[in-house]
Amino acid sequence: MAVEVLVGTQWGDEGKGKLIDVLTRDVDMVVRFQGGTNAGHTVEIGRDKYILHLVPSGIFRPGVTCVIGNGVVVDPVALKAEMEELAARGLDVSVIELSSKSQLIFQYHKELDALKETASAAGRKIGTTKRGIGPAYADKANRIGIRGAELQQPEKLERLFREQAAAYNKLFAQAGAPELDTDAEWLKVKAAADYLAPFVKDTVLSVNRAIREGKKILCEGAQGMWLDIDHGTYPFVTSSNTTAGGACTGAGIAPRHIGTVWGVMKAYTTRVGEGPFPTELSGAAGEKLRQAGGEFGATTGRPRRCGWFDAVASRYSCMVNGVDKLAITKLDVLDALPELKLCTAYDIGGEITADMPASTDLLAAARPVYETMPGWNCPTTGIHTWAELPENARKYLQRIAELVEAEIAIVSVGPEREQTFCV
Ligand code: GDP
Ligand code: IMO
Ligand code: MG
């Protein structure tokens, strides 16, 4: 049985957590393959609402193995807290496996992340989540990172941690920033290591064993296409490959095992943080979408920037990810709008193009060319079939599918598990 991969096709927060929860009804294993606590994946089950940062969103289905893969950057203190909270809410966290090859995030990474953001000039700020993601991936590439395996070797972990903390403290001192209290930080790390050590293993072996046994595996992407370090709106991106290919390197799965790629796509567009966003709506129109969609960051609480659906960016995204099946989310958020706009091309300095420009600067200069469609002006949240959808909603979705050149397989009309139907 082929491995399925689910990714965000826009700027993150498309509803990946919800979709993973829906799709894991008949899945044996869910694998996170990149990112870290910058992710905030919301799952609503009845009256219970959960926001997951590192734990895979398969945790709500009993018996599903939840793997945090080698491509993930793991804040051990945050992971311990997240697992303890889930356990306190009655969930079985013994199904979690943490890759011995994952990279660890410590307080000094978070401090540096925040320091860099504060020190950056206007126009250079990325608007990161300040969770230490960039500095941790930089340490990985610099080959000075500390890995999951070290959680099982407390003495080595302490030595490496203190060496790194001292080096970072020198940097902080040079920048005139307060130094970290290494002893106090170590105590937190030690407690996290004691808690997490039993969960650490070579998850590449478990994932490939599951593949051999014909188990059904779903890889859970974090962030979204336009935050990908290679393909996104660089430098306004995260520091990992958020696209489908990342599942191979970030989980240790050979390309030939990958089957269906699910692309989660909001029926409009949002972005948190800095960087170009051609279809962004400012003022009252943007605020209306933000309120209707509850568009505030699940991790940082920041208001998300909102705008119309961008078919130019989304088609490119479906191409890079090789999306087989689309899950369109938050259709209900558009219920009350009299008319909707779809961006079908960009006007860049008077030249009209339906292709993504080659550089982030050109994208920043792009003015959207819109096609207008009538709204449906009635609630869709209670709808459970394609046939029941108002005709204008069906037409809107069909037009999206046509423009992005992918098939719609699932429509989501509310945050809960049940507010979802297959097409
Ligand atoms: P993720 O990061 O991709 O998992 O998405 P987030 O959890 O950050 O943001 C998606 C938000 O939209 C969450 O608050 C979800 O509960 C909510 N949500 C997901 N699908 C729908 C939907 O179809 N309709 C509405 N109204 N909310 C949804
Ligand atoms: P999920 O998985 C939306 C954004 C940040 C910032 C940029 C870099 O919930 O969709 P980072 O902290 O990664 O160095 O920040 O990426 N960002 C996200 N935006 N959803 C996310 O995750 C994000 N994770 C990071 O706002 O612009
Ligand atoms: Mg999110």
Structure, explained:
- It is a single chain.
- The chain is of the alpha/beta class and 423 residues long.
- It folds into three domains: 3-100 and 200-262, Adenylosuccinate Synthetase, Chain A, domain 1; 103-197, Adenylosuccinate Synthetase, subunit A, domain 2; 264-422, Adenylosuccinate Synthetase, subunit A, domain 3 (Adenylosuccinate Synthetase, Chain A, domain 3, Alpha-Beta Complex), CATH 3.90.170.
- The protein is built from twelve helices and 20 strands.
- It has helices spanning 16-23, 76-88, 107-119, 133-141, 154-174, 182-196, 203-212, 246-251, 283-293, 311-321, 360-365, 391-404, and strands at residues 3-8, 29-32, 41-45, 48-52, 65-68, 73-74, 96-99, 103-104, 200-201, 217-220, 258-266, 269-271, 305-307, 309-310, 325-329, 339-348, 351-353, 367-374, 407-412, 420-422.
- The strands form five sheets. Strands 9-7-5-2-10-1-11-15-19-20 form a ten-stranded mixed β-sheet, with helices on both faces. Strands 14, 16, 17 and 18 form a four-stranded mixed β-sheet that branches.
- A hairpin with a 7-residue loop joins strand 19 and strand 20 (420-422).
- Helix 2 (76-88) packs across helix 6, helix 3 (107-119) crosses helix 4 and helix 5 (154-174) packs antiparallel against helix 6 (182-196).
- Bound molecules: guanosine-5'-diphosphate, 6-O-phosphoryl inosine monophosphate (IMO) and magnesium ion.
- Guanosine-5'-diphosphate (GDP) is lined by residues 8, 12-18, 40-42, 44, 294, 298, 329-330, 332-333, 412-415.
- The site of magnesium ion (MG) has 6 residues, from loops.
